């Protein structure tokens, strides 16, 4: 029986790879919620009377930790296959000019898909698109949050799309699952991970937070299924989009 780079029979390695792929789809949501719970316990132990709300204010910090954990996991998973995680961010120089033009065109579509569902859903659910801002952002110390948001943005770019599409969806499809099902599952989980960013137990908030990125997630999944080599460009765009959060926190936070 043929062995794989993992030193296992090929059929056993395939089963394990498939299991790991589905688990990776769940990993970020579980990590987000788990790390917020740990933070809440810390606030409670320090005497906070509203520990869960206090932990929610620092969601970029614990998501950054989750991103680092996720990157380490991806590095290990790729290594098991005899591959290098960082290779997925290699730019294909042969198609550089063409890919850049494609990315510019895709950005024209992706911009509205990422931005519009947020205020539209917020208005439908809360009656005002601005009503959701206090649910996501609370005044915190700028000297802590701004450096955190820089690392947050960079690690988001390196962890998120790679987890859902380049690793999990691609390997689920390799197990014989229909590509539409594999990439749809990844898109749905990419959107649902925001339920725990931060996690609040309120119905309208959960609907808004869980669905606001769903069209964008499906769009990105379709793009990466069609042309996986665009991942480095999409990752850079992801970083730049997340860096915009710094302006929001600066406008709301007190030193």
The major β-sheet equals:
none
- Number of helices, counting only DSSP H or I runs of 4 residues or more: 12
Strand content: under 5%
Query: Which regions have little confidence, pLDDT < 50, spanning 5+ residues?
Result: none
Order of H and E elements: HHHHHHHHHHHH
The average pLDDT is 91
Shape: globular
Helix content: over 70%
Characterization of this structure:
With 255 residues, this protein is mainly alpha-helical. It has 12 helices and no strands. The protein has helices spanning 10-45, 51-56, 59-80, 96-115, 117-126, 133-136, 142-174, 179-192, 203-211, 214-226, 231-243, 245-252. The longest helix has 36 residues, at 10-45. The model has no long low-confidence stretch (mean pLDDT 91).
Q: Short description, anyone?
A:
With 255 residues, this protein is mainly alpha-helical. The protein is built from twelve helices and no strands. Helix 1 (10-45) packs antiparallel against helix 7 (142-174), helix 7 (142-174) runs antiparallel to helix 8 (179-192) and helix 7 packs across helix 10 (214-226).
